[in-house]
């Protein structure tokens, strides 16, 4: 007998880690915050595996995510979406943007971008603007390429990325855009976006045919996510996601940005900094109840 379809009247939350390392306490905080808010609002809780980077994401890390979350006892719905199985969905979104002239190929290497930024700083005597993550804004080197030259270079197999023409995208979206932030008591306020501070962001690469910005936007819509709960480090990126939602005709969820856990140096816990993993804590005798108490979810 077929199972009943999900209740579309209930809010939908999701936790979406990348399997490029073992989960740490910061991931536990995010997963437990999603669980607590989903329970508070009577919502569903989905797990999504964000594995678009096939060179860094590995099967053993997917297994590790399942083990760690099972150990914490978080009540996700059965099954999960793996982004690597849905590249066609992201290709469709890119095609829609391409048809409207909102993306363009960029053949610049990182070194070429750095050289251009240094040269322009030397001319102006002023620092080149950076995005919220601290990376230099793209200096629009390939934006002036004619379509014939771009197609010739693509046909010749030159490595390239696809960038969003931010100015054209903002104009196409029209008007002032915003999104709604909610807290644990469902008190809400509207935040106006400023996606121009990101410049012409990358939406796809030759080796990874999508980007975090594009994949997360498409996935949230396809999975019916109504409440996005994630760390404050991703708050600024929401500007890009809301812009893409408007361009692609997708709904905009409600958002909640939780606190971040910092190490002794005041840096955010991160896999790249070898922050102690949940697996290591478990091997040291720490229990799931200990983790919940430590993070305020006793």
UniProtKB/TrEMBL annotation:
Pfam family, one: tRNA-synt_1c
UniProt xrefs under InterPro entries: aa-tRNA-synth_I_CS, Glu/Gln-tRNA-synth, Glu/Gln-tRNA-synth_Ib_cat-dom, GluQ/Sye, Rossmann-like_a/b/a_fold
Keywords attached to this entry: Aminoacyl-tRNA synthetase, ATP-binding, Ligase, Metal-binding, Nucleotide-binding, Protein biosynthesis, Zinc
Boundaries of every Glutamyl/glutaminyl-tRNA synthetase class Ib catalytic domain copy: 14-284
Domain of life of the native organism: Bacteria
The family this protein is said to belong to: Belongs to the class-I aminoacyl-tRNA synthetase family.
Protein name: Glutamyl-Q tRNA(Asp) synthetase
Species: Bosea robiniae
Source organism phylogeny: Bacteria, Pseudomonadati, Pseudomonadota, Alphaproteobacteria, Hyphomicrobiales
């Amino acid at each position: 007998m077929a199972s009943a379809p999900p209740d579309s009247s209930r809010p939908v939350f999701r936790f979406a880690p990348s399997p490029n390392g073992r989960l740490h306490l910061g991931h536990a905080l995010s997963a437990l915050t999603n669980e607590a808010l989903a329970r508070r609002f009577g919502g569903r809780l989905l797990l999504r595996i964000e594995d678009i980077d096939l060179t860094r994401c590995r099967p053993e890390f997917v297994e590790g995510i399942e083990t760690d979350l099972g150990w914490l006892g978080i009540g996700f719905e059965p099954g999960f979406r793996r982004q690597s199985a849905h590249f066609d969905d992201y290709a469709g979104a890119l095609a829609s943007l391409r048809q409207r002239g909102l993306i363009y190929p960029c053949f610049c290497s990182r070194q070429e971008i750095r050289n251009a930024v240094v040269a322009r700083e030397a001319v102006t005597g002023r620092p080149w603007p950076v995005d919220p993550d601290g990376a230099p804004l793209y200096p629009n080197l390939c934006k002036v390429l004619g379509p014939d030259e771009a197609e010739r270079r693509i046909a010749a197999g030159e490595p390239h990325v696809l960038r969003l023409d931010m100015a054209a995208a903002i104009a196409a979206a029209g008007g002032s855009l915003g999104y709604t932030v909610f807290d644990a008591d469902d008190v809400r306020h509207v935040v106006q976006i400023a996606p121009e501070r990101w410049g012409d962001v990358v939406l796809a690469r030759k080796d990874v045919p999508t980007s975090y910005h594009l994949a997360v936007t498409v996935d949230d819509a396809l999975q019916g996510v109504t409440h996005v709960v994630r760390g404050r480090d991703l708050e600024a990126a929401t500007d890009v996601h809301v812009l893409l939602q408007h361009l692609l005709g997708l709904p905009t969820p409600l958002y909640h940005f939780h606190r971040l856990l910092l190490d002794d140096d005041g840096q955010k816990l991160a896999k790249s900094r070898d922050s102690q993993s949940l697996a290591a804590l478990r091997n040291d005798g720490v229990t799931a109840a200990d983790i919940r108490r430590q993070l305020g979810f006793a």
